[in-house]
Design goal:
It comes from Actinospica durhamensis. Residues 204-238 form the C4-type zinc ribbon domain. Helix 1 (5-29) packs antiparallel against helix 3 (93-175) and helix 2 packs antiparallel against helix 3 (93-175). This protein has helices at 5-29, 32-88, 93-175, 179-191, 214-222; strands spanning 197-201, 204-205, 229-230, 237-239. The protein is rod-shaped and about 135 Å long. The protein has 5 helices and 4 strands, in the order ααααββαββ. The protein has a 4-stranded mixed sheet. It is mainly alpha-helical and 246 residues long. It folds into 2 domains: 5-25 and 178-239, no CATH class; 31-162, Orthogonal Bundle (Helix Hairpins). The chain starts with a helix and ends in a 7-residue tail after the last strand.
Amino acid sequence: MNAEAADQLRLLDLQALDSKLDQLAHRRRTLPKLAELQTLDIRLGQLRDVHAVSAAADSDLVREQTKAEADVDQVRARAERDRNLLESGRGSAKDLENLQHELESLAKRQAALEDVVLEVMEKVESSAKRTAKLAADRSGVESERGRVAHELAGEQSGLDKDSVFTQGQRDLTAAKIPADLLALYEKLRAQYNGVAAAPIVRRRCQACQIELDISEANAAKAAAPDVILRHDSCRRILVRTADSGL
């Protein structure tokens, strides 16, 4: 394939723009705040799960406290009824004696149940504090995530603007290159990590950084200006410039 020297030089401009686009895309994929945001999302997910479990435990403990208090109220009511019966003096001596024994048992039962209430109340208070702390931690992480997401969006927007501008320049440059030469360039770019054309600088290929041997250098020097050169080592298109040293 042959192409005018000016078109070959445009390949270098196109390669520079494509390399810049690749760099911008890589920078966008590897922005530090992306990893920071991912870490915060993981932490936030963990806090949400733990907070939900803690809140559910709060509800269970409140129900347990309500039941324990209802048990105490029930025993108190039974004791009050027995006390009223005992004070009324109605019934046989045996019945009154049984009421007295029952009141003693109910007093013990009430004391035990009140201990249970106090124990559950302590658990409720402790669990509520834990849940409040988790809620505060979650709120803090959510706030931090919002800040990081906002800063990330700003960085991405800046890179996107650079990419759109560079893509516009790229399209204009590509439009000036002959179709067959452009097709070869695109094919090689796909094959060789996005680098299809490189200048020869002081007899060295700038794509693979391997110096041309004597036969390659002589062949490049002797070739007509419109001949498309390919490097034997890396197979990229070699473009001759004023700095080639040939």
